[in-house]
């Protein structure tokens, strides 16, 4: 582990001229003091209910004598583990949880005043973090604003208010990142926000006030990086630093006077030259994609068909270069198949070549195997003729009604239903049901459900897109006086579609035509390995949605040979329109009524990078319901309800 101190200017120049630029100097520092917190002063931790925040609070209370603590979180207490920690700490300390908004002056004043009411404020720690990772072409003003709000605005407000209201402040600490000093692909906004925080701390030290910014490398065991990428991640040349190590260096940092310090565990490239130390390539790729069991994957399916995006490709390319001395383009990485990844991992790279890609004919140069894979996927495209369908052979008067995902049918839920020990009934879309309004769609489903079960209590569930429809069904049933016994979300939530759609399109506001193109490309990516930028350009040449859709149908059908199992042009076109209209309806849906009762959320224990910035509860905390949350092992791709793990749900 490396602990370094970056020396910077600590006094303002007396002459009215620009401050001289000093070259940072690195020096090793050995802690000689154990920092303790007084029993009378109060310490505030912004972001204190996150993974790192809970560990910091545990260290302060149990090891360093802190007896007055304010933890700040916009969402408040939301998990059983957070409640358990608070219970334990409150046996020996006075612990307050505040939900004030740290990015506003009013919110910060409220936090400081709540703390000051019970004693002088002795420490302020800002651990707030928001990630909106994307390559620069996918960044926008909105993504920068989201990341900078908690870090830059929060730190500035804390600085301003503490100068006026906290004369006895001993510690003003912000958690920065090694990304700020060394950079990391897709995190320009995160690096910028951390850099601004560091400048605030430098100015405070120059003014004779406490100020400390800690550049952490990758943090293991807890936190955002661990939740998404685990303990084996390498970021900015650093590997995960265990949380116990982080706490050990806190004494060192809190006992010195330099405004910017760093702590990280340097990656050792020489250790990776040994084949025994190389990461298994297939497992690493599956981890990046958020796939739990790669052994269940078709060996001929490509990474592009599995949904790898540009940011994931960058991470996998770095892994190939570091561990396998193999340099590939982004398009070549998208064309890698599962079987080819196994070959590379086992050292069979002799004569390694990649087939030329062609956006207009994705399957042509990959042989018949890829055509078969595409055909298997296309065969699942159907137009349902019944709203209600029995999913298993179980009997019962009060079945579990499961609403369809965005495909409109419940074919992907059959294996899951077979594992249930109760009657499962699927709710499907049919052509006579509107696709333009979640409320109107739910109204039709309410009638069909009542035909199966005339009276409540009703047990409802929805998979992905179906989660918001199931929520609206439950709300309408309660509004009419019916009883809803349970409501379960399978990797979805009322606002999930809007959040995920916004995240996938770069979180920026786009026009209708671009939105049409984006949704059609997303539909194609469910079935084909495509160069997204090229196909977007190709579809954008057409002015109307119908012309775009016809061009997209040509791309899809040309990827597989003529076969009786191949769906007709009409069926594929209808599926595209349905996908588009469901996507628009979902992104526009805003719950207007309250749901009374608990809900159960089953979600991935580790999100893929494409969804890493979704909130922990998929936004359920913003919906007027009581949440009883549980975590299941659910893959976030279109085959996620199939596979050997489904019984765990």
Automatic annotation (TrEMBL):
Pfam families: KR, PP-binding, Thioesterase. Keywords: Fatty acid biosynthesis, Fatty acid metabolism, Lipid biosynthesis, Lipid metabolism, Multifunctional enzyme, NADP, Oxidoreductase, Phosphopantetheine, Phosphoprotein, Transferase. One of its GO terms (biological process) is fatty acid biosynthetic process. This is Fatty acid synthase. Residues 1-24 are annotated as: Disordered. The keyword Nucleotidyltransferase does not apply. Residues 272-352 form the Carrier domain. SUPFAM superfamilies: ACP-like (SSF47336), alpha/beta-Hydrolases (SSF53474), NAD(P)-binding Rossmann-fold domains (SSF51735). It catalyses: acetyl-CoA + n malonyl-CoA + 2n NADPH + 2n H(+) = a long-chain fatty acid + (n+1) CoA + n CO2 + 2n NADP(+). The keyword Transmembrane does not apply.
